[in-house]
């Protein structure tokens, strides 16, 4: 059996004009991660370094998880009150799925060390923003619906193994400038050491903080995320803890990140999700009209593996993400148009019947651990799909639609819901 480590220690954060390097130790075993930026001015300024320290804290969880140490020493890293809250939440909730799958309780982790942080006032232009871009329907809708008077650039993070082709093709279709970061994970994490624990980490929080680093370093005044309302919905309740695969994309995480950034560089710089008060159904409706992206976008995670030779060149048509995107677009695009996109019909595939049941809340007792909408969104999409004549030959769509019992209706999900931190000038 794998055993938990005793101590995870934060070492030194090195900042150069174009790179960040975090150094960590797990029971004395060193780990190092380097992120190199393109398209920004020097990172070696007090304000940028202050934000880089937040990234350093959260990025360490990629290595902490290898041993799930019972004690974390933050060393001399400046943390601050809000930075400490973000770190504690990222460890307990951002690693919630990891803990659930490995049956590890992280409530016992002792956190020591860390110091106060200073606040800086960098020169930023609130009319210039940076939009993290993943090549899926969410980020495409954000890019196309954001106020065109804003000077918008994309932020793309790639692994050391090379850029993701479908992401690059979709980014090119926007016609926008690109700011880049290349993550070089410690090879020990990628090698699959049998003694390590494995599992999901709060990677979107890491990417968000890297985007803030790039934004401040290039004089921009905001980072525009693309996380919908339903990303806050947990997958399962486990020993009184809500386990959410998308915790990094949740409203709680957005507020924690915003407070931690404000603590270090003031409130002029904004981090907010443009889609926070929108449903996946609304996003699908808008994306359906963005036809120039239909044959380049990709949401299938098998296209985004670390190893370049293992990346799928097309939609796999078998995973929960392919199934969900097919389902959520079906009320707005013809069956023929969907077939052109996917080159298969995931929703009509009998082999995926159990997965479809889980998506709409009829199968598993929890939604899949994947970046998909909540069961209501999926069930409402399925019910609307079942009313379309062109899908009448797929009997189990209609049968399953009668079993689903969403609490909300189709038109209701096309309206705004919940809070949002988006400033007024980001809207058209």
Per-chain topology:
Layout: E1 7-15, E2 19-26, E3 29-38, H1 46-59, H2 61-64, E4 71-73, H3 81-92, H4 96-102, E5 110-112, E6 125-132, H5 137-145, E7 151-159, H6 165-174, E8 178-184, H7 187-190, H8 203-217, E9 220-225, E10 236-238, E11 241-243, H9 251-265, E12 270-273, H10 280-288, H11 320-329, H12 335-342, H13 353-359, H14 375-386, H15 395-403
Parallel strand pairs: 1-4, 4-5, 6-7, 6-9, 7-8, 9-12
Antiparallel strand pairs: 1-2, 2-3, 3-8, 10-11
Tell me what you see in this structure.
With 428 residues, the chain is an alpha/beta fold. The chain folds into two domains: 213 residues, no CATH class; 134 residues, no CATH class. It has 15 helices and twelve strands. A ten-stranded mixed β-sheet has the order 5-4-1-2-3-8-7-6-9-12, sandwiched between helices. Helix 6 links the parallel strand 7 and strand 8. The termini are far apart. The model has no long low-confidence stretch (mean pLDDT 94).
Would you count the extended β strands for me? 12
When the domains are counted, the total is 2
Apparent shape: globular
From the N-terminal CA to the C-terminal CA, the straight-line distance is 56 Å
Let me know the average pLDDT: 94
Largest sheet: 10 strands, mixed
Number of helices: 15
Helical amount: 25-40%
- SSE string: EEEHHEHHEEHEHEHHEEEHEHHHHHH
